[in-house]
Amino acid sequence: MTLLSLAISSIILLAIISNVVGAPQGYTSSARQFIYLTRKAQHSRNTSEWAEYAKNLRDATIAKYSSQLSQKRGTGENLMVNQRIDTNFYGYLAVGTPPYPFAVLLDTGSSDMWVSSSACQSTCAGTGNFDSAKSSTFKNMSKSFSVTYEKGYAAGTVGQDVVQMAGFTISDQTFGVVTTTTANFLQNPVTGIFGLAWQSLAASGAMPFWQALASNGQWNQPLMAFQLTRFLNDSQAGELEPGGSFTMGYTNESLYTGTIDYQDIPNGQASYWLQQITSIIVQGKSISLPSGIASYAAIDTGTTLVAGPAASIAAIYAQIPGSQPGTGSWEGFYSYPCNTAIMVEISFGGPNWSISPGDFAFASIGPTSDECYGAFYAIPTSGASGTPSWILGDTFLKNVYSVFRYDPPSVGFAALSEIALEMNGLAGGIPSATLGANSAMFTLEPSAAPPTRTSSAVAIVISAFFATLVSFVQA
Predict the structure, then answer these.
(1) Which of 45, 75, 129, 192 has the largest CB neighbor count within 10 A?
(2) How does strand 100-107 pair with strand 190-195?
(3) Where are the alpha helices (DSSP H) in 193-270?
């Protein structure tokens, strides 16, 4: 018998079986004669047979549900875009039925997901804003939405719809549908923000997309990771450049070397992705830091530079000859001679992580000026507000491979590999709005009606079985 014949015969057999197993009851013939089913006498098991039978039942249950769990888990990658020379890093997701793609900032410093509504006019940048009327699965939650960031605010209403990213789908994700923002809050083509911090920070109260996946065991590993590119010191850089990699459920071992040094979130505070800064070395000299909460830092992909307490920022620039505090619009910043290469190292209780002098040099005053402004600036700090004293943004994160782990709650860093470093300043195509193959799909709020087996489901299984066998024959 050929393999093709075997495939066809198997399909016929499966079709017969599907009719039999679908009706576990007495059979009534066309002549309306009822045929009774008889039960054979049960075999009497001895002690060892009962033990073997029990073991088989247990093993079968474990195998069945372990298989289901492994099928749910997966990994995904979202290739990012570097916008406006390291100012923002964004990726793509899709919302609605049918799905429509949106460019969103990937922000580990906030927890809300939101997209600009088609009703948002001049204040909302971006193209193709979300039109809820075009999605057959959208639900208006009849609740207002408002969130404030360092550089502005966004407001609108709360909605719920199918959301897809990097091959993962949540059928009832809650998010903000924004109708107004601070002027110039977003830069085209970005139409929203994808919050990647913990649920406790969410203004909407909704569980973030990433946390829903991690808490429901949808990832191979309970973590997500970033590798960001650098174009700040590339004079030929365009408005949009390749931005690096954002992965869910795994770390990309080709993008880092050595081991990942994980440090737990202080006191298990699952809000911001916090780390305690234990040392800062500037030009080879350590600066004095306060202890405890005053040295907590949020690891934030959504912030461009590095912000810290005024006293600590002043101590950093005190190690740089010729530095001066800025005034006017540059208040909180410091200038220093551009011909001075600034070396900064930061530790969180493990290795020291260096920041490139090119990243520290944020901006020069003019084309012929020998003065630069540093990427570290001072912000007001208040323990009562809940805002961390330090915000470590992309100036720092471009220099490390960063990992955000759900369980245990922690942040890890590793040295970038040569492959990752070669991406800095490397011209290339801008990633398109691809969503990836579906690795997992689930509902946050399970339906009350349990799933039922239907003949169409059996037909799908049969079709898949046939397709597999035919592919094997053709191979």
Answers:
(1) 192
(2) parallel
(3) 209-215
Separation between Cα atoms, residue 459 and residue 464, nearest integer Å: 9
Annotated active-site residue 300? The verdict is: yes
Say how many C-beta atoms besides its own lie within 10 A of residue 246's C-beta: 25
Residue 234 appears among annotated catalytic residues: no
CA angle 210, 123, 185 (to 5 degrees): 50
User: What are φ and ψ of residue 175, in 5° steps?
Assistant: -155, 165
The length of the chain is: 475
Q: Which listed residue (86, 107, 112, 394) is catalytic?
A: 107
Task: Report residue 151's pLDDT band, with 50, 70 and 90 as the boundaries.
Answer: confident
Rounded to 5°, the CA angle 338-344-348 comes to: 160
Residues 6+ apart with CB under 8 A from 312: 280, 287, 289, 290, 390
Q: Which residue of the set 86, 300, 359, 394 is catalytic?
A: 300
Identify the burial level of 364 via C-beta atoms within 10 angstroms of its C-beta, where 0-12 means exposed, 13-18 middle and 19 or more buried. middle
Model confidence at 55, pLDDT cuts 50, 70, 90, reads: low
152, 143 contact by CB (below 8 A)? no
> How would you list the strands of the sheet with 390-392, edge to edge?
274-276, 296-299, 390-392, 306-308, 376-378
pLDDT in tens, 177-206: 999 998 888 888 999 999 999 999 999 999
Amino acid at 149: Y
Let me know the angle formed at the C-alpha of 414 by 408 and 415, rounded to the nearest 5 degrees: 175
Which of 262, 269, 417, 415 is closest to 348 using CA atoms?
A: 262
pLDDT confidence of residue 281: 98
3-state DSSP assignment of residue 140: strand
Question: In this structure, are residues 175 and 112 in contact, taking their beta carbons and an 8 Å threshold?
Answer: yes
Residue 88 is classified by DSSP as E
